[in-house]
Amino acid sequence: MQNSSTSKTIVFIHGLFMNPTSWEAWIKYYESKGYTCYAPAYPFHEGKPADLRNKLNGELGTLTFGQVINRLISFIDALPEKPILIGHSMGGLAVQKLIELDKGVAGICIDTAPPAGIFSFEWSFLKANLPTINPLKGNSVCMPTVKWYQYAFCNTMTLAETQIEFDKFVVPESRNIPRSSTKADGKIDFTKPHQPLLFIAGEKDNIIPASLNKKNFEAYKDKTSKRDFKVFSNRTHYICGQKNWEEVADYINNWITSSL
Fold first, then answer.
1. Fewer C-beta neighbours within 10 Å, C or N terminus of the chain?
2. Helix, strand or coil for residue 229?
3. What CA–CA distances, in Å, run from 125 to 103, 153, 255?
4. DSSP 47
5. Which pTM value belongs to this model?
6. 43, 71 in Cβ contact below 8 A?
């Protein structure tokens, strides 16, 4: 599936427990490369992370992955050109879904959450995800602890280092986004031709193991569509904010240049 033109627009899509502030350094990087960059927020994710943590919005609790996708579609459809999509974690799955819907000229999925039907039995995946999707918690808003965040995101960092990142970026989250992503909302047609896709995995990612990213990548079946897979050593789920994140951004920029 070929592109008729090269887009100079990038839409960054954040993952769970994050909001657009997590992309600020990446936006500066890609703007310096000549791109016009946007980072739309999921519903109820707008604002300063500290403010969102201090005053939980009860409406957040019922937010689903499908509603997130609808918000992103509305945003993308209002842009002057079809964008390149870069997403992290649940944002990576959003990229997969949006590429399936032909809303981007290329998609980069970083430590992407798995689509419906793609699963891992690795202990770290189960341990990191169960506290959020716990059915006994109902529609309560999920506010993670620093200790959980260290295990799930920052497992090569000290607790003190993790606390700094937590304070800067972490926001409360809906349990129903990940729950619904494992059902119809998160289903991907892996047989459908698609625009170029790049999957990036962190070697030491606990919450989305590299093996799960590889399984997701390998699920695509159309031989005429471009897709690539890359593992970065010593990277965790915090790959986009971790030391030397620029190496990842450089790799993606070179891939975009060669793919479009």
1. N
2. strand
3. 30, 11, 28
4. S
5. 0.96
6. yes
